[in-house]
Design brief:
Blueprint: E1 2-10, E2 13-21, H1 24-34, E3 38-45, H2 49-65, H3 71-86, H4 91-101, H5 105-119, H6 124-129, H7 132-135, H8 137-149, H9 152-209, H10 215-251, H11 253-263, H12 269-290, H13 295-302, H14 309-323, H15 328-335, H16 340-352, H17 355-375, H18 377-412
Amino acid sequence: MKYYEVHSLFKGKKIIKVIQAPNKHDAIAMAKAKASGVIINVKETSAPVEDQLANFKNNLLGSLTKKKIKIKDLIAAMRQLAVMTDAGISIHDSIKEVSEATVDKTLKDIFEQIDDDLNSGLSLTEAMMSFRNELGDVTIAMVELGESTGNMAESLEKLSEILEEIEENRQKFKKALRYPITVIIAICIAFTILMVYVVPKFRDIFSKLHAELPVPTKILLFMEHMVNHYGHYLLLGIFVTVVTIKYLLQHNEDFKNKYDQYILKVYLIGNITFYATLSRFTLVFTELIRAGIPISDALDTSLLTLDNTHLKKQLTAVKTSVSRGISLTEAFRDTGLFEGMLIQMIHAGEQSGTLDKMLEKVTNYFKSKFNDIIDNIASYIEPILLFFIACMVLLMALGIFLPMWNMAQAVKN
């Protein structure tokens, strides 16, 4: 819904009101029905401050309290849909059965709403589009593939396999991160105990010396002061920062664009995001090409799987280039996202009429690169952890023992 400012003239006085409407045409119709006098002008405007605050509050609470669908329940639902549609049961009846069978309350509500939308004449893709954030872009893309090809059962079965692979990779990623996260938590606990119970005792000793303290000791005492006096503010600041970033990612396009561009440059996380995104994109694109969908339409559907706006912008340029008559090989080369070897494979597929097979090899390449990072993530993170631990130990050692050593030297002299 948009906001429109309505200017009307009533008994010689100019009256300004703000109304909500989906578009200007509806706004004019609503203004004629509600406004008194003669309407002079209707123009789009920003929301009133109180409405902006109310929307911010609702969106923030929604971001914090929104329940996520368990991917295992979603996989089970899609497999059930695939089996039922393959048996010749209509998609409408299949959706109704799945909504009754699923145990996930959020998923049950979604399927019930989809059932209502199907009854109102919407297609399955259009009905699911309202729940894009909950069901995922891959789900939307594969359902659209099923409707385009008329083989919904096969598309849903393939979707189940893709979701299972995503869940397997997620579990592998969590398992790989378990060790470094445990180490970081242990370090943080040890550091906090030192700051709260150990360093204050040395502060009292150092204050009695009335001597110039070395830089490591000053840093240590400053950190101790911050933890003991402002620790709760630091925790609150971290919490507010995380919530704010999460809110902005969901409701501010400019912030999300900059964030998505930056995240691709971050060590390790950038590569994981890059290979996971391109693996999904090429996988769906391959299936669409194999099903005989025109390249331009296949690109449209495949772009739905992209969550990173920076990569989406670059790959959207591929569709624009193809629409202008440029070959798919040249369009992919212009993005700068594909290595020379992959471009040669795509070129060979275009020339020989085996584009789907070559794209499958490209998909497998991105998948193998992603799996390699996930399988060896501990070895990538370990040097950073060791460096971090070494710095903390060195700071503690120098901060405490340098003044003690200076004091011993003074006594000796």
